[in-house]
Specification:
There is one protein chain. This protein is an alpha/beta fold and 254 residues long. It has a domain of 175 residues: 3-Layer(aba) Sandwich (Rossmann fold), CATH 3.40.50. It contains seven helices and ten strands. It has a six-stranded mixed sheet with strand order 6-7-8-3-9-10, with helices on both faces. It has a four-stranded antiparallel sheet with strand order 2-1-4-5, with helices on one face. Helix 2 packs parallel to helix 4. The longest helix has 18 residues. The two termini are 30 Å apart.
């Protein structure tokens, strides 16, 4: 583990949602302690309702904790910002903009547009994500997998040091999901950005992560932390892969 200060540092974090319509208070996160170092691919894994998306929203600056600390580069997270790019399960693209225009707009909004290299940067990113031939296409005319590639391309374009990904492949068919997992690891291997990836799939977490944080159902607590040392590319059919999968599932009682 690096001796450098972690890029993400969460200490004693708690979050509850107020009672509504006669329902009791929901304790979403209970005493979460977590650090992540620069360049690490971390998966936060657990069943629906364990608070993993809530935790990611707090990291992104979309929500706030009730108590505890959420630090990014040793400073409290108080708002969203381009230093923490977010990729959602829903694509959140501008439907009236072409593929290229979606990427350009993201760069403009982040103050990354205007240099002599900006146009070539867009070309490089679209090529890397397999979208250059579709640069004049509207999102509605892309497949689900291509729309998610575009969402990732926008984050790469603004050069966020951290990519926060909330079940980005959860709505895709299994073949498309597998291909995008492979594409993401290829991109990450080339950029070594810090990735915090939320998933409810043990297999996805093991395929992608350097380290897996396992959470329990509500209230969300960290019950296990596993370092994944399997060499990449990883084979989901291998004995070592499936032994680790059994360990992950056992830790949440599945």
């Amino acid at each position: 583990m690096s001796d450098a200060a972690p890029i993400i540092d969460i200490r004693g974090l708690n979050k509850a949602f107020a009672a509504r319509d006669g329902n009791p208070v929901v304790m979403a996160l209970d005493n979460i302690n977590l650090v992540q170092h620069e360049g690490e691919f971390l998966c936060i894994m657990g069943p629906s309702g364990c608070g993993k998306s809530t935790l990611l929203n707090i990291l992104a600056g979309f929500d706030t904790a009730d108590s505890g600390a959420c630090l990014f580069r040793q400073q409290p997270v108080r708002a969203a910002g381009p230093d923490r790019g977010v990729v959602f399960q829903e694509y959140a693209l501008f439907p009236w903009m072409t593929v290229r225009r979606n990427v350009v707009f993201a760069m403009q909004a982040a103050g990354k547009w205007g240099s002599a290299q900006a146009q070539s940067t867009v070309d490089e990113i679209l090529e890397r994500m397999g979208l250059l031939a579709f640069q004049s296409t509207l999102p509605k005319n892309l497949s689900g997998g291509m729309r998610q590639r575009l969402a990732i391309a926008r984050i790469l374009a603004i050069d966020s040091p951290v990519m926060l990904m909330d079940e980005p492949f959860g709505a895709l068919d299994s073949l498309t999901r597998t291909k995008l997992q492979q594409d993401l690891i290829r991109v990450w291997s080339g950029t070594r950005k810090t990735v915090t990836f939320v998933t409810h799939s043990a297999e996805e977490a093991i395929y992608l992560a350097d380290r897996i944080i396992v959470m329990t159902p509500r209230p969300g607590r960290i019950v296990n932390e596993l370092r994944v040392t399997l060499p990449r590319p990883r084979d989901p059919t291998s004995a070592d892969f499936n032994a680790l999968k059994r360990e992950v599932l056992a830790s949440i009682g599945t």
